[in-house]
Target: DUF2264 domain-containing protein
Amino acid sequence: MTYDPASANPLGSNALATRSDMQRALIDLFNPLLPYFSEGNARVRLDAAAAHFDRAAADLEGFARPLWGLAPFGAGGGHFAHWDRYAEGIANGTEPNHPEYWGTVNGRDQRMVELAALGFALALVPEKLWDPLSPRAKDNLVAYLIHARQFDYADNNWKFFRIFVDIALDRLGIEYDRSLTRQYLTELEGFYIADGWYRDGNVRRIDHYIPFAMHFYGLIYSRFVDDDYVKRYRERALAFAQDFRYWFAEDGATLPFGRSLTYRFACAGFWSALAFADLEALPWGEIKSLCLRHLRWWADKPMTHRDGVLSIGYGYPNLLMSENYNSAGSPYWAFKAFLPLAVGEDHPFWATPETPLAPLDETVALRHPGMVMMPCKGDVVALSSGQENRQMRFGSEKYAKFAYSTRYGFSVESDERGFAGGAFDSMLAFSDDGIHYRVRESNDEVRLAGNVLFSRWSPWPDVVVETWLLPSSPWHVRVHRITTPRVLETAEGGFAIARRDFEADALFSAPGSAYAVGEEDFTGIRDLGSTVTREGLAQKAPPNTNLIAAKTLVPQLRATVPAGETILRCAVIAVRDTSAVSGEWLRPPAAPGIDELRILARQGDSVSAMDAPGRMS
Model:
């Protein structure tokens, strides 16, 4: 029998419907790590690939990140057979003379990130990790934590990491300088926008770090601490839930958007943290459904290696889409999803039957992330104003495409000199030499008018593009006004769908349109009367570029635009319905006139994510 990579997924045979199912899932996901613990149990090394930080920090990451799930499991009465390994690992990792010493923190350091997991676990289950330590080991651990917390943490969600160490020190009865805790609590307030939305630092972007970091940590804080911040963290989570639920489709898939997607089902961490904090931000049946449906979505994905260890990647192992801070242990931030294991069977999260959310049946505009959430036959498409991340690899693909989909994800490019073969799904690419290319990386102006998004951006300093995005489910319409002093080649892509072997898919291309019909999906793009003729192309995208499907097809429109002003108009569709080729495909929406669109742009509101950092919206 041919090996099926999905068969190595430890979630594959799990119904993921009950508390005991989730307990089993945690242990099944953890057990593949056991062969990779070091002799002294302080390090977990999973492969030879590197992150930008040193190997000892990567080994600590492999050791510490599972604690985000193991500690709630232990607190909720679950039987974990390897607490002795963790206690021994902590003792050896903080002993400077031991060969498995984690290394001393002497500045901003990846160890600071992982010590947050350790602080959380020490606060939640001290009887498992603190009480078994010898007096010398306790002294070493305290010295290690207090030494690390004196350094400056990154100006983003990292500030919570020192706070989590401080919570542990408090609960263990250790004296320390609390002014540093108060300083970071104050500074974190500067990241708050409004209506439950934060930035992850002084940056022009909003992504999954808001739910699985900023809110996740705030809700845990609210369980451990009683102060003025607790009330605001809980109130903000209540507001955020009303918007964040729209990032999830009927089948549990969430919107792949932004960085660190290799953390996978950490995306359910917000719903998990509501249970931990006992905060009914939505009816408990809906919170439970959002959490467990998301876990179930992952159960048939080939997301692990043959031994069941989580891979770097999203739908499948894929280093191409990773960040330079992703080591082999990084994906185990996914264990944040297991936070509900800390609450008992009688908690309403577990005692209430799942209640699926009513399907999204109309567009919903979200001003703060600059998105218009659009229902698409069970899936969700987010039209996006475009955000900014020029610091990280594939920041444009992760933040600045025109649309993102729960079903079709998005693609990263694999060759910066491959204009002819690029995927360019949900992007407009320009080339001045037919080899290199530019896409939207940031915006000079962004507006949201009702459910219409407008942005003005420049692929080069002397080229200006004005883009309008309009929902018309299951289609969306794009209009671009391009002003350029020279001739440019352009390529505009629709959504990427899975491609089959043996050329089994139906591809179509003609002047002004292109589509592909796959095993389950239809994807197409139609010109709606541009001022230049555009040729259709059913592009066979480079392999391993899409986050969900390893091989994909992308319909494109390609054209040469002259110097001066050019208007490009198109409609884009992708649905899990192959019959759409003789249905919806034949009924494209119309594009409004440019004058009407320019009036709309002037009337729109600013998008918080792209406001100058520090400005309250």
Summary: The chain has a mean pLDDT of 97. The chain has 16 helices and 20 strands. The longest strand covers residues 564-575. The first helix runs from residue 19 to 30.
